[in-house]
Design brief:
Number of helices: 2
Shape: globular
Number of strands: 27
Largest sheet: 7 strands, antiparallel
Helix content: under 10%
Structural class: mainly beta
Length: 331
């Protein structure tokens, strides 16, 4: 697992020099609609042509801050998932989660909701009446072949903030700065919200077998020397033992740090499904439209989302950097 200690960037032994800092790839987001006819707009940094996975992290949406009185907030009708886990993390607002396992939970700032789709699950996501500003991220994790047909599951966890010299962290998956999340995953992962004080820098010890991504929410951030603007995602390849996050601005910076060993399996990702072949995607779509594989969501006021039409050409399995993404813009 990644990272056991955080220390100030000006510490002695172990500090990265300019010459051994990892090269950082900067990925920009694109705006896409989420959730069918009542869509809200999100900024998507994964997947894209330049990079499709960071570890097993295969999907990253960043939204808000949205004035719910103006935008209408989030209202994503029941929709299916297979072959993945969903990770919901909020900075502000509140979302009501319902799923076909029978879970009825609230997503709140600083609290992790992790849902395992496995062979098949469906859920809805609706911002609550108490929400005035909605702001957060929605992330997906690809399940390895050995576990992609596992049972449905839902986990909730509230990480305790870890104070650091120059910031703080909330570790919701994996290990960082001496804190470990108890939440179960099927591949080694790192997921944490990190805040960096104005003018401060944090250097984390990280697992050299991991690749890492930094999604910037606010602040003038440098990831191991490379500047990242808000909404951008920085990527660092495996092979580095430390990772430095610096805030050069006058306000506190906030970011989401992701990591994991490279995901070597070939996958096909289309709409809300992660499979291994075009035929499996076709079957999952048929099962959603006419079967009971994904179960039903009780308590949502409205119809479930229909699946989009499949493309006219077969979807081909690809590895990282050339992943077939298909129609992934609607949840």
């Amino acid at each position: 697992m990644s990272s056991t200690e955080a220390r100030p960037a000006d510490a002695g032994p172990g500090r990265q020099s300019d010459s051994d800092r990892p090269a950082v790839e900067v990925l920009t987001a694109r705006k896409v609609p989420l959730g069918g006819p009542r869509a809200m707009t999100v900024r998507r940094t994964l997947p894209q042509r330049a990079r499709t996975l960071i570890g097993a992290w295969c999907f990253a949406d960043h939204y808000g801050p949205d004035d719910v009185s103006r935008t209408g907030g989030m209202d994503v009708a029941p929709h299916p998932h297979t072959g993945l886990q969903t990770v919901s993390w909020l900075f502000s607002g509140e979302i009501e989660h319902r799923d076909s396992l029978g879970s009825h939970a609230r997503v709140r700032p600083g609290e992790l909701n992790l849902m395992t789709g496995g062979f098949g699950i469906s859920h809805s996501e609706v911002s609550t009446d108490r929400t005035t500003t909605l702001h957060g991220v929605q992330l997906w994790v690809a399940l390895p072949d050995a576990h992609r047909n596992t049972e449905r599951d839902f986990q909730h966890y509230v990480p305790t903030p870890v104070p650091l010299r120059g910031g703080r962290a909330r570790v919701f998956l994996g290990t960082l700065a001496g804190d470990t999340s108890p939440v179960r995953t099927f591949t080694p992962l790192l997921g944490a919200e990190v805040s960096v004080d104005p003018g401060a820098a944090l250097t984390f010890d990280v697992d050299p077998e991991f690749e890492h991504g930094v999604l910037v929410d606010t602040g003038d951030v440098r990831m191991s020397g490379t500047a990242l603007a808000p909404t951008e995602l920085g990527y660092a390849a495996p092979g580095h033992k430390t990772l430095t996050l610096a805030n050069e601005g006058p306000e506190s910076a906030r970011l989401v740090l992701l990591g994991g060993p490279p995901f070597e399996e070939e996958i096909v990702m289309w709409w809300n499904f992660i499979c291994r072949s075009h035929e499996e995607i076709v079957q999952a779509r048929d099962d959603w439209m006419s079967g009971d594989r994904f179960g039903s969501v009780k308590g949502y006021d409205g119809d479930r989302l229909p699946a989009p039409e499949l493309p006219n050409v077969p979807l081909k399995p690809r590895r990282n950097l050339s992943l077939t993404c298909g129609n992934t813009v609607d949840q």
